[in-house]
Amino acid sequence: MLSVRVVKLGGNELDRPAWLAACADALRTVGPVVLVHGGGEAVTALSRRLALPIEKRDGRRVTTPEVAEAVEMVLAGPVNRMLVTALRRAGLDAIGLSGVDGGLLTAQRAPGGLGHVGEIVAVRVSLLHSLLLAGLTPVIAPMAPAAEGGLPFNVNADDAAAAVAGALHAAELLFVSDVPGVTVDGTVQASVAAGDIETLIELGAATDGMAAKLRAAATAIRAGAHAVRIGDWHLLGHPSAGTRILPPAVKAA
Q: I need a surface site. Which of 173, 180, 223, 241 has the fewest CB within 10 A?
């Protein structure tokens, strides 16, 4: 069985070439890796140009069918291509995929009144294993069709990464963005117990995008990922960087 890491790269930083190049370079040392990416800033920019509504709730985009089409255009198009190009330039044999390709992801409509937003119910693990064994680095744009097909659902990239990491029983899931970790009272936490996540969110210590990441981290651990960390690109080269999410049975020190 391959020891795989799943890395989610944040959408807000993807338009910074130097940051992306540093991540791509660091990814060479991670070993077999599956990359899942966001692209929120690019989706927002296109939505503005098309005069589409822009609304988020708890870090998740409210998605009309028209917004879902814009998400697919952006994430499966220029954003995915940009990431594949950066990884290949760094020496990784990257291949771009959306959740539609090869039936990689299957989703159902997510609860919560977010519109055309999905939650992943199946991951075609054998396809990812085949690509990894061939020496390829899959780069996944997180949209996923329902089993019956139709317009693919917009899937939050943190949730997609958690589903992929759980299905692969990944050695580690790394949420990489421009923040050094989970900050409470101005201090980056070395670890957070999964059981404390909802309390942190209720207290306002974790909001919007960080709340979504923490909930996705807890989901990944429940689904079979062995470890999760949240932080900046230093996560890729330093095993102690960022904030580690501890399984419910383990108490934070």
A: 180
